[in-house]
Model the fold of this input.
Amino acid sequence: MTPYFDEKPKPNASDRRYLPRWEVKNRVMFHCLDPADLYREAFTRDMSCAGACLESNKEVITNQKVHLKVFLSEDQAFEVDGYVCWSKREKARYSTGVHFTNMTPENQELLLSFAFALDKKKLVEHWFRGWDST
Done:
């Protein structure tokens, strides 16, 4: 599975985040923790070290605690817990915003390495936006 990267229009001030989001389509296996649920498959629409937007064919209830296994490639994945911030139906699918609650430094480094490999220039520009090079 090869991730893709799309350019978005420049965000307005209220949408700027310290941790950038990457437009990626990565496979995710997840299940709700309370009440316990079977694993479901979803795909990321975008992702950052703080959370992800998932697309799936079933609704996930807001404030639900979830456990995710995010595949960065066929042989590389990380596991993280989170909670559902929002969920909405979009045509025949559901979009769900998940905030990660226990991102370990190792998983954060893995994800940042993944993002750096996708588009080094965009990641560096995001972090150093507004810095004078003089």
In short: The chain has one domain: 20-115. The longest strand covers residues 76-90. The helical segments are 105-118, 120-127. DSSP finds two helices and seven strands in the chain.
